[in-house]
Protein 1
Amino acid sequence: MKKIYFLWLRQIKRYLRSRSRIIGSLGQPLLFLLALGYGFGSVFQKAGEGNYLNFLAPGIIGMSIIFTAIFSGIEIIWDRQFGFLKEMMVAPMSRISIMIGRTLGGATVATAQGLIVLLISLLFGFHPYNWALIIAAVPIMFIVALLFTALGTMIASLLDDMQGFQLIMNFLVMPLFFLSGALFPLQGLPKALSIIAQLDPLSYGIDALRDLLIGISYYGLGLDILILSTVTLVFLFLGSYFFKKIQI
Amino acid sequence: MIKVNNLTKKFHNFVAVDNISFSVNDGEIFAFLGPNGAGKSTTIKMLTTLLSPTNGEVIINGHDPVREPDIVRRTFGIVFQDPSLDDELTAWENIELHGVLYDVPDKLRKERAEQLLKYVDLWDRKDSLVKEFSGGMKRRLEIARGLLHHPKIIFLDEPTLGLDPQTRNHMWTYLKELNKNESTTIFFTTHYMEEAERIAQRIAIIDHGKIIASGTSEELKSQTNTNSLEEAFLALTGKNIREESASSTDRMRTARHRWRR
Ligand SMILES: Nc1ncnc2c1ncn2[C@@H]1O[C@H](COP(=O)(O)OP(=O)(O)O)[C@@H](O)[C@H]1O
Ligand SMILES: [Mg+2]
């Protein structure tokens, strides 16, 4: 337990010490909120869908979580390159505990990043329909963060250098984000797109956040939570499996 | 304490460790002497659960690193050849994390950490981030960290590479005391003849993945009718020992090239 806590703490310290990373990773969500939130605002309103910024904010929170989480998971490649992975891999603790400590740390960081984006969107005029439910949104953010940190860990365990990283960003993270309904409503989508969205776990995360923050949901909160938890467990399991197989 | 039978490691078609067998007794100081690229690090990685062998058997303190890695990991400590510190943590935090991962009780951890950091002359820099350290300082921290918990076996992979003579002496003094007081088994690799000769009770000479001779340095000398380990080595391998030239990243790069071909 103590070991898991210290591995978690390590991730937190690394996060707090990389101010430039925190600030740098806020640029993109900010840009999306400003450019899209204000840019598409009037079109969205005219289409009778209400306030676009309000609709968009949960999507952008989801975006910052998935980016930070996958990145945290993939950081294992850095640990490998800088050698610290060896130190962890010979330590007398189970691979599962190493994986859990790291994943909890990465997920905490990603949740923090999501909360910062939530605060920023409040500054830009986002207003949740029920302030109390913001508290309930935090555990959802954490599950989403856990899910994608585990996915990142799994991917990192299969790669042995940074060369695959760009590929993953372009062919996995970007599609997961763009096809999740973060930017558009899931109602009335073409069949193909709608099926793809249903296969995208982020889609359920953002749907759950919308349910709690603006009171709109497509799948329903119950289904969202069920799917998110199941997929998270599967990814944690797969992540541990592949992590265990790492050879140095 | 360590038993190795017909151990082989292949990286694709390249044989890095070629059917080696040896054993190290409880409480012994044993050296693996060989030039760069001989297969020393690869052997250590197989003994310490980081790599699985292509063939052969390893027994560490009665257990197999492949089948019972968690038990084996409890019996040893290791100082790696390549860096393995977390650059974003301070020297103290690196040591602390290590102590926690190896179940060293808090009080003992603090005492030993202070003693060791003073030993390697890093006590006043304990709160600096490791990324601000020079190569030599990192190396010293690495050694201090490796000695923090007192395991049954200590593996040291080219521990003195890039160390100043003073730290080198401190390190060997500390290790010899550990060996005497707690009968810690010490397995180290080196390409310095004099170090192997002065420190080790028994030596195995390894080249191109094969053990070509082993015994005490006296035995090696009499086997080859020579007066120094250096000459013995020359007689056995037909060449002077090559200095460590390629850095590990270079080696990874060449390894990768070989791979892609
Ligand atoms: N992961 C790897 N993939 C391919 N080749 C490797 C790998 N690790 C080591 N080698 C090769 O195996 C040989 C032995 O390396 P190593 O055990 O590091 O030697 P030493 O520690 O004695 O200098 C070298 O030729 C090295 O290039
Ligand atoms: Mg080596």
Protein 2
Amino acid sequence: MDGVGAFSLLLSGDPALFAIVRLSLFVTLSAVMLAAAFGLPFGAFVALTQFRGRGGVIVALNALMGLPPVVVGLLVFLALSRSGPLGFLGLLFTPGAMIIAQAILIAPIIAALTRQVIEDLWVEYCDEFTAMDVSPLGRVAALLWDGRFSLVTIFLAGFGRAAAEVGAVMIVGGNIDGFTRVMTTTIALETSKGNLPLAIGLGLVLIAIVVAVNTLAWSVRQWSERHAG
Amino acid sequence: MLDGGAIGRTAQPVMRLHGVGYRSGNTDILSDVELTIAAGVPTLLLGPNGSGKTTLLRLLMGLIGPSEGRVDVSAVDGVNTARRAFVFQKPVMLKRSTAANVSFALSAAGFPVDPLVVASLLQRVGLAALADRPARMLSGGEQQRLALARALARQPGILFLDEPTASLDPAQTKAVEDVVAAIAATGVIIVMATHDLGQARRLAGDVVFLVGGRVLEQTPATQFFDQPKTQAARRFLAGDLVI
Ligand SMILES: Nc1ncnc2c1ncn2[C@@H]1O[C@H](COP(=O)(O)OP(=O)(O)OP(=O)(O)O)[C@@H](O)[C@H]1O
Ligand SMILES: [Mg+2]
């Protein structure tokens, strides 16, 4: 019966439900962009430069890929709370705080995987680039371009992780109805309240989004293998 | 002991190696290399597997520096010795189309990317029909020819080739040898590693015979094949293993 209720909710185009889905997508897409703005250049920088402590940075990035979302939520909460160092921004319990938390969660993933992709390509291309006299800027551009399909799948992986995450956004967003309530926090709340149709309906949407993202990632890989080698 | 090959003929020396050694960790990969690369005739590096041909080419190209000794480069009229190109033994294709690989080499060398130039370079190595194919999907031999096209795109003064015909069939080997001979005729200095003795005979340049990281002979090809001076060279030519 709950399943039927869920479908009728979805099919009736319940505005509250769609507002929640829209906010979820907005928060997660913004977080991916923010994380990529940091993770992509940082990953490429670590891949292409030698500096003291580089090994440590790589180990740290890899370790940070597994950051527990609730811990990230807690840290962002502490930083943004009224008495915290960034309290003056007034971001706590806003979508902005949720974007920051998700971005922190996935920035290490994007940075670590970008580092891996760019470095692997660089090892392959190094001699050719040196022999062809490619300028430093030209090298970075060529590596990013030739790694573009792998990079897109990295962004999609980050999107998937952020979209499915509940702990961090719950803590820093506060799950405020109509303002910071996203799919995952709504599912958690409505399930505990016993409102199963909404929880199941949102669960289905979430699964559909994750499946769609993975299908997209897979297609990108297939396409790139066929067309770019 | 070495007669200096091209030295003493009309050819002008371009690069000279004096007592060059190259060490990786505790291993001596090249030792006491005395060598002259001259304009006018191709220089052919011959030697068994692991004798140091690739390492010597990388050193001449400037990809690695010598652990000891000196590499001198002299100016030669009409040759831009600073503009060098390298066809690697295992060339790496950019993840782009065949044509885009050539365009990339052109622009890296500071030339405008002219589709007509790209097309004519591909024509020259027999890849015109595959211009739009992803380069990594080309066969091994096609990739080697694409690497040659990329090298030619640089309009090099010195062209280093590391066994450029190793995975080519006889017809393509001949085609690549013709391209190499043609650019040699335009004054480009060719330094090529090979262990194809027939090829060394056909290109008829100056042979540098390497064994175990040492140059055992540098002599004109005809002399190397007809009257090898060292026992090792005689055994190498006879097909016996020399290590
Ligand atoms: N970076 C390196 N570190 C250690 N040993 C190396 C390195 N590069 C090459 N060698 C060794 O040096 C020797 C010469 O290698 P090189 O690749 O120059 O030989 P080659 O004459 O080109 O052989 P082939 O005909 O098989 O291509 C080999 O024994 C190889 O294992
Ligand atoms: Mg070699």
